[in-house]
Amino acid sequence: MQLKEDRLRSLLIRGLVGDPSAYHLFLGELSAHLRSFLRRRMSRLPEETEDLVQELLLAIHNQRHTYDLEQPLTAWVQAIARYKLIDLLRHRSRTDGLHDPLDDDDELFAVADTEPAEARYDLAKLLKQLPDRQRLPILYVKIEGGSVADAAKRTGMSESAVKVGIHRGLKALAVKIRSIA
Amino acid sequence: MKTEDLVSLLATGVEPIDVRRTARRYVLALIGGMLGALAITVGILHLNRALSQEVFEPMFWVREAYCATLGSLGLVAVTRLARPGIRLGVVPAGIGAVLIAMWTFAALILVMAPARDRAHLLLGATAAVCPFLITLVAAPLFVAFVWILRGLAPTQLRSAGAALGFAAGSFGALAYSLHCPELTAPFIGVWYLLGMLIPTAIGALFGPRLMRW
Hints:
The structure holds 2 protein chains of 2 kinds.
Chain A: H1 2-16, H2 20-39, H3 49-62, H4 73-90, H5 123-128, H6 132-143, H7 148-155, H8 159-180
Chain B: H1 3-11, H2 21-45, H3 51-54, H4 58-81, H5 91-112, H6 115-123, H7 130-150, H8 157-176, H9 185-211
Helix pairs in contact in B: 2-7, 2-8, 4-5, 4-8, 5-9, 7-8, 7-9, 8-9
């Protein structure tokens, strides 16, 4: 488990300095742990597990600047997961969906569930609700995989406006997913 | 949507994190909020006329240090509560120690004073308005600290709201002290603290609504 923590932590740290392949591995492996963590805590809401896995991935991505490099990764991820799970349950007043108490523990990285899974919402539809200055940068850079410079040229926006658009757009998507979840 | 697709989307073209951005926002919020607090103090309340003499009294600096220390401890609490999974540690104990020191000092002053002076040492001339004026002066700081926390990831929203309210109240009291004519330890130990606690309560009350993410 310590090995897992160290591996995920070093992948995240490489991601934080802008290494997309390390970051891809980090998010992919993390999602399996989150799925397993949530399945055991949301046994009465099985159809919603994957929605929350994705909401968590988006939250972790949007808040990655709040990770303190000195801090155990488990503590950071677990605090976000608990916050989102409690938020979900509280806002639907369905606390009975909570199977296990949300204790602090460090088994998050001990178990994984890699079964490919799908959430119920449609990203393409949500993306259409965003204003162009957020939608187009996400489309050109994050979905089509183009460079920021290229997206700036295609949209007529500045490069920093493209980056801001991506950042704000992903935050806006997280809000939209939360409101339908 | 497949989770694998979301992972690819998030990882594609991921930008490096600017590690100094958060620190810059703290500095900006503190300067902006403090300028707002000083503007209210100078523009609406006016500076204390005796200020130029009072700066030579030790008690003036005790009062400033009290407000600045509590504000700094409150801000440390904010920085910790702004990040998931970071504990408060010794910050609450530090705040407690500052308060106990001030109350001990205040008790000594009251005990040593002649009985007829005690009410005035405690109430001064402005006890009835002091906590509310501190709350007013703290408002720009409160807004600035909410702005910082909305860009971070507090997971205990009531505690984070209380911490930002306490920091705003304490730095607000620091600004307000340039207007305030009171220089006794009992007054500062009670009415200044009350002025800090009103924004603390407002923060705890509205924290979950203001900072949910």
